[in-house]
Amino acid sequence: MSEFVDSGDPETGKEYNKIDEVDCPRCGERMQKVSDPDQPHIWYETCAEHGMYFDAGEFTDYKYETLLDKFRDLVTGKRAQ
Questions:
Q1: From residue 40, how far is each of 4, 10, 11, 26, 28 by CA, in Å?
Q2: Tens-of-pLDDT digits for all 81 residues of the chain?
Q3: Which residues, including other chains, have CB under 8 Å from residue 19's CB and lie 6 or more apart?
Q4: Burial (Cβ within 10 Å: 0-12, 13-18, ≥19) of residue 53
Q5: What's the pLDDT at 70?
């Protein structure tokens, strides 16, 4: 069902990774920027109160780990903290 929930354009989602300061849409607090430890090319934001927030394409990518993801990990690297 991830494809149903994650219906945005992944290329647009990649553009959102360039935004450094993101506030939680529920509480307005600044969210922490992290990369997934198993798939470091996936960069997402977290709110201590309200959970994880993925850009378009990231949730589906998070669900399925492929050989292409291993290549993306090498190219993209971890997100700077």
A1: 24, 16, 17, 26, 26
A2: 556 676 777 787 778 778 889 999 999 999 999 888 888 878 889 999 999 988 888 888 777 766 666 667 677 766 666
A3: none
A4: middle
A5: 67
Indicate the pairing of strand 32-35 with strand 51-53: unpaired
Q: Are 76 and 41 in contact (CB under 8 A)?
A: yes
Residue 42, pLDDT score: 83
Distances (CA, A) of 24 to 54, 56, 66, 68: 12, 16, 30, 30
DSSP characters over 11-61:
HHHHHHTT----B-TTT-PBPEEEE-SSSTT-EEEEETTTEEE--TTHHHH
